[in-house]
Design a protein that fits this description.
By secondary structure, this protein is α/β, with parallel strands linked by helices. The protein has 10 helices and 13 strands.
């Protein structure tokens, strides 16, 4: 496989190195899909205590959603994240994915696995209390990133967020959609509808290869983005899902399972490793030298 890296990919961190005031490490963890062992191993690699699970003081984790389904222990993943949200709430940011959304409103798609009552109650408690949100903003010395489950499409950015170019404002507006405006928030794309790609698909459902990345190819990005949910590259089939012009500006990190597309104004970084019933290995979180700013 070959790509032409248009610029270096997002920075791996050395704690405190080169970032804005208050810099630490921000680790963006991709879709987990019920794989507890994968999560615990990655947290230990990031410096968590292997016995207690406590995160190091310099680390903040943003998890992009899709904690559940597919793998063998969705309930175990929820229990671990719930523990971290209770014991280190300032160091774990949990975003909502389309698989969590199944339990927050009327289910939008059929899925053969269902969480038990305890898991469903945990997700609803997180959502109603604000412990699970839609977006996070991360600032590094070089750029700002909006982190969501599936990415912010051009149409959604324009129609719902008013075309804001402030990443903190974008995050605030997205998080404000929880509650009364969830129909907008969970606006489906063609992965759900089976119809033609929707360039205004919402940040929980947008498909990277057909709705998110192509939509920004001819428009300047107001800020960089990190997303999960899907990828412009199929890590199992080892093939791109986008046209040649986007392949040329996409850099793959095969060890981390990250795909970074560099466009005018910023980068779109996909961190979904594509775990199924079996995990995809190797993979790792995206580490940034920076801080949460929203």
């Amino acid at each position: 496989m070959s790509t032409v890296p248009a610029s270096p990919g997002p920075e791996s961190t050395v704690p405190g190195g080169g970032g804005p005031p208050g810099t630490g490490r921000v680790a963006v963890v991709g879709d987990l899909g019920g794989h507890l062992e994968e999560l615990t191993a990655e947290l230990v690699r990031l410096g968590a205590d292997p016995v207690s699970g406590r995160l190091p003081d310099d680390l903040t984790v943003v998890q992009v959603g899709d904690l559940v389904h597919r793998g063998p222990d969705s309930e175990g993943v929820l229990a671990l994240v719930d523990h971290l949200l209770r014991t280190q709430p300032g160091q774990w940011v949990q975003l909502v994915g389309n698989h969590e959304a199944q339990y927050l409103a009327e289910p939008l798609f059929d899925w053969p696995e269902r969480l038990g009552a305890a898991g469903r109650a945990t997700l609803r408690r997180w959502w109603s209390s604000g412990l699970m949100r839609v977006a996070a903003a991360v600032t590094t010395a070089e750029e700002s990133y909006l982190v969501t489950h599936a990415g912010l499409t051009t149409g959604f950015w324009r129609d719902v967020l008013g075309g804001t170019e402030d990443v903190r404002d974008a995050g605030r507006l997205l998080n404000a959609l929880a509650g009364e405006h969830e129909a907008e928030l969970f606006r489906p794309g063609h992965m759900l509808t089976g119809r033609r790609p929707a360039r205004a698909a919402g940040p929980v459902w947008a498909a990277a290869a057909t709705e998110l990345v192509p939509g920004w190819a001819d428009r300047r990005l107001p800020f960089s983005q990190v997303h999960g949910h899907s990828s412009v590259y199929d890590w199992r089939q080892l093939r791109f899902r986008v046209p040649a012009d986007l392949v040329r500006v996409t850099r793959l990190d095969e060890e981390a399972k990250h795909a970074t597309t560099t466009l005018d104004g910023g980068r779109l970084v996909g961190v979904d490793p594509g775990h199924g019933r079996e995990p995809v290995r190797p993979w790792r979180a995206l580490e940034l030298a920076g801080r949460l700013t929203g």
